[in-house]
Amino acid sequence: MPDTTSLTLPAERPRRATRARTTRTGATNGVPPWPRNAPPPVLVEVHRFTGSRLSAATDLRGGVVPPDPAVVESRHRGCVVQVGADLRVERGLGDPATVVMLRSAVKPFTLLALVESGAVEAFGLTTTELAIMAASHSGEDMHVRTLQAVFRRTRLSQTLLACGDMAPLDALTAARLARDGEQPGPIRHMCSGFHAASILLSRHAGWPVEEYWQPDHPSQLAARDAVARIFGVASKDLLTGIDACGLPTYAFPLVEIARAYALLADPAGVASDQPRRSLAPALTMVRDAMLAAPEMVGGSRDRLDTAMANVRAGKLVVKGGAEGLRGVALLPDARGSGSPAAGLALKLEDGGTLRGSHAASVEAMRQVGALGERELHQLHAYARPALHDPRGEVVGEVVPSFELAPLGELA
Questions:
Q1: In a domain, 265, yes or no
Q2: Residue closest to 215 by CA, chosen among 379, 20, 16
Q3: Residue 12 domain-assigned (yes or no)
Q4: What's this model's pTM, rounded to 2 decimal places?
Q5: Residue 312: CA atoms inside 13 Å, Cβ hemisphere, count?
C-alpha cells in the first residue's frame, strides 16, 4: 500500500541527514540487459468505453452487439521479474536491473533484527503481533488493539511512536472516526507496527527509546545490518533513503528484490550461502507470522496483499511498497503441486495508481501459475478494476496488457 502520508516529527527532534551512496547494488548475475535507452513496457491500460459498448445493455435489436474499440486513456509502464528457488530469473518483462526503493516492502527483512535479538521470546510476542510489525496495516480497530496490547504488556507508551499522524486507510473505519470526532493519530498510521518493532528492540537491548527513528540509532543500524545480510551485500554499500514514515529504506535492482522474496518463501531451501543460511530460523518466523495473520499485514477490506494471501492460504506472502512496488514470496507448491519456491517483484514506473498496481500484480501472478480460475474470480475487482459513473454504471475498465517471457528471449 502506498505510503502517502507526510511525516510529522516534534520540532525538538531535528532529523540528521543520511548520506546516500551511489554504488549500484547487486549485479544481475548473468541476466541479459534490457536494451539501452528503451522505455519500460506497458503493463496496464485504462480503457473508457465508447459507442455500442455503452449501449449494448439496452440495445433493442437483440443479440450481441460488437463493442466499439475503447479509448485508451492512460498507460502504466513498468517491470516484472520472477526468480526460482535457485535465484535465477525464470520469467519477466522490462529491465530487471532497474534500481527501485523498497519502501514498505523492506519491512519483513528489517524485522529480522527484532527476532534475532531474542525480544520475541522475552516479550512473549504472538504471531499476530509479529505480523503487524511487518505490515502496512489499514488502521482498523483490530490493528490498534493488537499494538496497544503490546505497548501495555511491555510497559511502553504509544506516544513514543514517531511515524506521524494518519487517518485509517480503511474507509469504513475512517468514516466512523470522523463521525465520532477522533483525530488522526500515530497508532492508526499504516507503519505504526513497523515503528513498534524498533521501539521494542531498543527496550530489549537497553538502548534509548526516545529517538529510535534516527538513522544512526542502534536499532536502525541493526535493521540495516539485517537488510544487508538478506541481500548479500556489505552494509556500507547500501543505497539508503528515508521513507514517508521517517525510518530508513533501501534501494536495490528489482531482480534482487525478487530474490529476497524467494528467500522469504523458503528460507532454509533457497539460501545459497552460509551467511544467508544462518538467517533461515528468524526469516521463517517472520514468514510464518505473515502467513498466519494476513489481515494484520494489510486489512480486512480492500487490501490486495491480504486478499491475494487469503485466496492461496499458506502459499503466498505478499507485501506492497509505495510508488507501485510489490514483492511476493511464492512458497513451495504455490505454482502447483511439487513446484519449488519462487520470488516475484513488480514496479510501475509512474508510481502507479492502486488500480494499475493491482491489475498488474494479479495478472503477473496468473502468468507465473500461482492463480487459477477460482482465485481470479475471487480477485476480479483487483484483476480488472471497473470504472463507474455517478450512477454506478460501468463506463470503462483497467486492463493488464503484457505477457511475461524468459528474459533471455527478450534481450
A1: yes
A2: 16
A3: no
A4: 0.88
A5: 29
